[in-house]
Design goal:
286 residues; alpha/beta; Rossmann fold; 2 domains; seven-stranded mixed sheet; two-stranded antiparallel sheet
């Protein structure tokens, strides 16, 4: 018999929440919505392929105007989802997968156990899944004196300002999730309250004046060099000793890793950077 049934319930709830947020209990979450824009087919030189693409575009457009979606069935791969290697576009609140959510939980529970002062923030929230999980953990542990900050443009990624930024995903519609939608996602889990605050806008505009006094968890998911650097310059000095910095795209986005390297070197900071998985890394601030 479990001597502490409440602890077991907490573990069960947090595990279920990770599965729901990452949509790993829904096989349909691997399916992909088929989209096509005019520029995707107008540049085709082969006439037969051009005709096929035109028919495909018109079909998708016709369905969309009648509130239908054309969906491609893709087999669900549990391991791929756990490692955050696919995007649960149709169903899901986070792309990071269960493995990275485990890391968020371990870091949060460590700072709570050791009374490391400060709030939690994620810069780049998509549908809010990670920050929803952060707020849930605070509620599970009965913590009422910390805030979860959700920093995002809520308009997708900005266009690169230089070659340093890396790939241009500014036109990727799936990344454009409104503030109202993210707030509604918190509400669905009964976690939208005064311990959740939103910073809407580009990081270069919002983070320099953000009313964040101290941080215990700084999670970066801005992908680009400039977005990562904006977050580090404005927020890293606020991370408490014993707090954690988590970088979602450290290994998968070269521009992101370069920003981390440049910031740490410029400020003579020696960080024991540890991998979370093939994409992400974190370190404890000493």
């Amino acid at each position: 018999m479990n001597p502490n049934p409440n602890e077991n319930c907490t573990e069960l709830y947090s595990d279920l929440l990770k599965k729901v947020l990452s949509a790993s209990i829904y096989e349909e979450s691997a399916w992909s919505v088929v989209n096509m824009h005019k520029q995707d087919w107008r540049e085709e030189k082969n006439f037969l392929q051009l005709l096929k693409n035109h028919i495909k575009f018109r079909t998708i457009d016709w369905l969309g105007r009648r509130s239908y979606l054309l969906v491609k069935r893709i087999p669900f791969d549990a391991k791929t989802r756990e490692m955050g290697k696919d995007w649960p576009n149709m169903i899901g609140y986070t792309m990071v997968g269960k493995h990275r959510l485990n890391n968020v939980q371990a870091c949060i529970e460590d700072v709570l156990k050791n009374n490391v002062p400060g709030d939690f923030i994620e810069t780049g929230a998509w549908r809010g899944g990670v920050t929803i999980f952060m707020r849930a953990l605070l509620k599970l542990h009965g913590v009422t004196d910390r805030t979860v900050w959700v920093a995002d443009s809520f308009e997708g990624l900005p266009a690169p300002t230089s070659e340093n930024d890396g790939w241009d995903l500014s036109a990727t519609e799936i990344l454009k999730v409104s503030l109202e939608k993210v707030q509604d996602n918190f509400r669905k889990f009964d976690l939208l309250d005064d311990q959740v605050k939103f910073l809407k806008g580009w990081f270069c505009d919002t983070l320099p004046t953000a009313p964040v006094e101290k941080l215990a968890i700084l999670r970066l998911d801005g992908d680009m060099y400039s977005s990562t650097m904006d977050a580090l310059v404005n927020l890293y000095p606020k991370v408490s000793k014993g707090g954690y910095v988590i970088v979602d795209d450290y290994f998968s986005w070269p521009a992101c890793k370069q920003a981390v390297t440049d910031y740490l070197q410029a400020n003579n900071i020696k960080a024991d950077i540890k991998p979370i998985d093939a994409d992400s890394a974190f370190w404890k601030c000493e």
